[in-house]
Amino acid sequence: MRILIILFLGSTLFSCEDKKTKVNKIVPKKSTSTPLTKDVNPEKKESDFILNDKNVMEFFLAYDKKHLESTVRITTDFGLIDIRLFEATKFHRSNFIYLTKKKYFDQTQFYRVIPNFVIQGGNSDDRPTLRKRQKIGKYLLPNDHDKGFKHNRGMVSMPSSSIENPYKLASPFEFFIVQQQGGAHHLDGDYTVFGTVINGMDVVDKIAAVPTDSSDWPLQNVFIQKVEILE
Question: With left for phi above 0 and alpha for psi between -120 and 50, is residue 166 left, alpha or beta?
Fold first, then answer.
């Protein structure tokens, strides 16, 4: 099953780099930002949208004005992790709230675990996760790294896509939590920090300690049972 993820999720997988991992360097893409269209009308039912690179920015600008929640709870196999999302990174906060309300993260996994570095979640190698992605759409988010947030321990950040991506556009379906003591500041500027753990770092540490295979995938799957809005 783990091989399947390369086949049907490869275009949006993470590329959060550590000292052993390099991000592909590729030809820049032209901007796909377009003016607000009827397809991105904020009065249209949100459930009717299929997001893409042309409408995602306008959609989340409108979504941000109506959905002001900022605190979420991640229920994992090892316990609860509460996260506060930063208002300053509005696209990433709104994206996380949107996916939470869509129940996208439910039954995904922490699929990349590196002790004293990060735990990365929001993906899976099963077909239900693929189908949820297809219903939501295919899109990337801008790198919004200049809001003053650093990759300190406990910070929540968004990895970049593994596709041709010199601007480190963010893969919206995944996130990682910095577990490293003292932070992982070599990531600053390359990835968008959009939240922080306010309760449950002991759970993060437990997940970071699980045995993994050569690709950093836990030998025993660590599930995100659900993500819910607290306030």
Answer: alpha
**Each residue of 13-57: pLDDT tens digit?**
445 544 433 332 222 333 333 334 444 554 456 666 899 999 999
Burial label, 162 (beta-carbon count in 10 A; 0-12, 13-18, 19+): middle
pLDDT value, residue 8: 37
Contact between 184 and 116 (Cβ < 8 Å): no
Nearest Cα residue to 124 out of 57, 173, 163, 190? 173
Q: Length of the chain, please? A: 231
- Distance between CA atoms of 178 and 176, rounded to whole angstroms? 7
Give the pTM: 0.80
The fold for domain 4-15+72-229 equals: Cyclophilin (2.40.100)
- Do the Cβ atoms of 113 and 178 come closer than 8 Å? no
Give tens-digit pLDDT for 109-157: 999 999 999 999 998 878 999 999 999 999 999 888 888 899 999 999 9
Structural tokens at position 161: 């896509």
Domain ranges of the chain: 4-15+72-229
The tokens of 227 are what? 């993500």
> b vs e for 80-93, b when ≥16 Cβ sit within 10 Å of the residue's Cβ?
ebebbbbeebbbbb
For residue 207, which of 81, 73, 78, 72 has the smallest C-alpha distance?
78
Task: Write out the two tokens for 200.
Answer: 């449950």
